[in-house]
Amino acid sequence: MATYKRYRKEDSVSYSLGLTLTFELLKYKAEYVRKIYVHSAMKPGDTLDKLTVLCKDAGIDMVYTDKIFHVLSGKENCYVIGEFSKFAGNLCIEESHVVLVNPSNAGNMGTIMRSALGFGIRQIAIVRPAVDAFDPKTVRASMGAVFSIDFKYFDSFSDYMKQFEEGRELYPFMLDAKKRIYNICPQGVFSLIFGNEATGLPEQFADIGTSVVIPHSNKIDSLNLPIAASIAMYEATKGRV
Amino acid sequence: MATYKRYRKEDSVSYSLGLTLTFELLKYKAEYVRKIYVHSAMKPGDTLDKLTVLCKDAGIDMVYTDKIFHVLSGKENCYVIGEFSKFAGNLCIEESHVVLVNPSNAGNMGTIMRSALGFGIRQIAIVRPAVDAFDPKTVRASMGAVFSIDFKYFDSFSDYMKQFEEGRELYPFMLDAKKRIYNICPQGVFSLIFGNEATGLPEQFADIGTSVVIPHSNKIDSLNLPIAASIAMYEATKGRV
């Protein structure tokens, strides 16, 4: 009899919790889906029929059980779970990137993925140590964006630079920066670089490319990371989306 | 012997969980503080001394107990809790506002408060039904902004309009809108109006003031609410902060 465990970073699979998210998974990453779990409270009808057809066409097993929901989904209304193998992504030199240096919060990373997809920045570099992009919390906060953007982990920022520095405009976001955000206007391929939620970017990033600040009053210490990253993406892509 | 209960919306008091937040509470709303709780794991030293002096000066009792932390603070490192009476705020006609119509998520509301304070918009109107601005999750996500902005609840949007419509530029944010955000430039006092996380603003808001959209790709359904609200505040206050 199957037993289910909590998700761990080391696992080779992760989960989409909820119906909408699972449809996104099936739409963009069907080849990685291993199973679809359906809760007994899921009502028969068009939605379940649609899910059943999608699974049948893709040769994916549907498992009717409530057990995995107790383990994975907490209190929320969640009647469908998708189990998928973790997949690898690649970045390319022709695309603009968001670079997250040592992000520590799964929800924040997911929210940034969602905004990135919204503003047409489809590639994200993540510099370790960093939170897990496959954490079900990241997946959920991304509203499925994790299945259609590309992301890749790097062991250090210099590893990223070795591959991608050339021919690219670099904008590290820091409080003590050269330029205010509304005075920059990327002309070509760019990278928007953000530090950890609590500590920001180390000061040596001030020597990389053009450092940028989003001005705010001295009544707050900083903007929340996904807010700052989204404002940056909004400005950098203005009029292009 | 004192017993402690989980926070409920009906309570007359709420809590700041954590040291930084409690210092913000003492800085901006000292007159509402009822007690400061200190956990046994809180180390003696300058910080505790500073807290002790502040409490002594303001005539606030410090209670050394671990019990309330078990009930209120979950797993995180939290060694100080402030208990405060809920306070009332007022809005005024000379100030620009953020108007949240039926917001449902405590963390989102707190994040919006933090951004608002950062962009110099110090007053928030909240239209019921709505999440509780005093929920400890709101307080925490606001990073203390809840103690220095003004906010007020209204039973309906028309109640808000009766008091504040006159002489004010109104900008409801909706996907199906008249103007793109970078084509608006408020000249005077304004209100930025946002709907519920899942449903947005009802369509009749299209007839109020100038409806505005933040353009994004069709790959996402919408931006996350605090992201959209923060981009709007950023644009509306650009160069003023």
In brief, what are we looking at here?
The structure is a homodimer of 241-residue chains. Chain A has 241 residues and is an alpha/beta fold.
Walkthrough of the structure:
Two copies of one chain form a homodimer. In chain A, 29% of the residues lie in helices and 20% in strands. The first copy, chain A, has 241 residues and is of the alpha/beta class. In chain A, the strands form three sheets. The first copy, chain A, has a five-stranded parallel beta sheet. In chain A, helix 4 (106-118) links the parallel strand 5 and strand 6 (123-127). In chain A, helix 4 runs parallel beside helix 7. Chain A is elongated and about 60 Å long. The model of chain A has no long low-confidence stretch (mean pLDDT 96).
Mean pLDDT of chain A: 96
Task: Tell me the β content of chain A.
Answer: 15-25%
Q: Estimate the helix proportion of chain A, in percent.
A: 25-40%
User: Which runs of chain A of at least 5 residues are low in confidence (pLDDT < 50)?
Assistant: none
Order of helices and strands of chain A: EHEHEHEEHEHEHEEEEH
Radius of gyration of chain A equals 20 Å
> How many helical elements of chain A?
7
Largest sheet of chain A: 5 strands, parallel
